[in-house]
Amino acid sequence: MKKDIHPKYHQIEVVCGSCGAVWKTGSTLTELRVSICGNCHPFYTGSQRLIVDTEGQVDRFMKKLAAAQERQADAARRKEQKQQQPKKKSLLREIYGEEGEGESGEA
Ligand SMILES: [Zn+2]
């Protein structure tokens, strides 16, 4: 091994952020945190819990989804209100009276 070119190798503890499991390993890092490990990943546990939400990603998605659904409902409500309102008289009809009917169409 050449001198002064290799990073230092440490005995460190890896910590799982999801289940809190700790195990030792060797690494050039001084600290290692993982979001999921073999102790808690559904593939290894065989549990039905398929989504492991360690960083609030599911919550964030659900919030976005709720906001989007609210916007859609709001838009639908507004559209309904707009349709219920009586149509404004055509500007041409206001100016020329009812004689322009048929020619002016919708304004
Ligand atoms: Zn884990």
Please tell me about this protein's structure.
The chain has 107 residues and is α+β, with helices and mostly antiparallel strands. The chain has helices at residues 42-45, 57-84, 91-96, and strands at 10-16, 22-27, 32-34. It has a three-stranded mixed sheet, with no helix packed on it. Strand 1 (10-16) and strand 2 form a beta hairpin. It binds zinc ion. The site of zinc ion has 8 residues, from loops.
In short:
The chain is α+β, with helices and mostly antiparallel strands and 107 residues long. It has helices at residues 42-45, 57-84, 91-96, and strands spanning 10-16, 22-27, 32-34.
Q: What characteristics describe this protein?
A:
elongated; 3 helices; binds zinc ion; single chain; alpha+beta; 107 residues; Rhinovirus 14, subunit 4; 3-stranded mixed beta sheet
Q: Can you count the helices?
A: 3
| H-E string | EEEHHH
Which CATH-level-2 architecture?
A: Irregular
Q: List low-confidence stretches.
A: none
Sheet with the most strands?
3 strands, mixed
The number of E-state strands comes to: 3
What are the distinct ligands in this entry?
zinc ion
Shape descriptor? elongated
Distance between the termini: 84 Å
The rounded Rg comes to: 32 Å
Range of helix content: 25-40%
- What's the average pLDDT? 84
Give the tally of structural domains. 1
Give the DSSP E fraction (strand runs of 2 or more residues). 5-15%
Q: What is the CATH class?
A: Few Secondary Structures
Broad structural category:
alpha+beta
Strand line-up of the largest beta sheet: 2-1-3
Write down the CATH topology: Rhinovirus 14, subunit 4
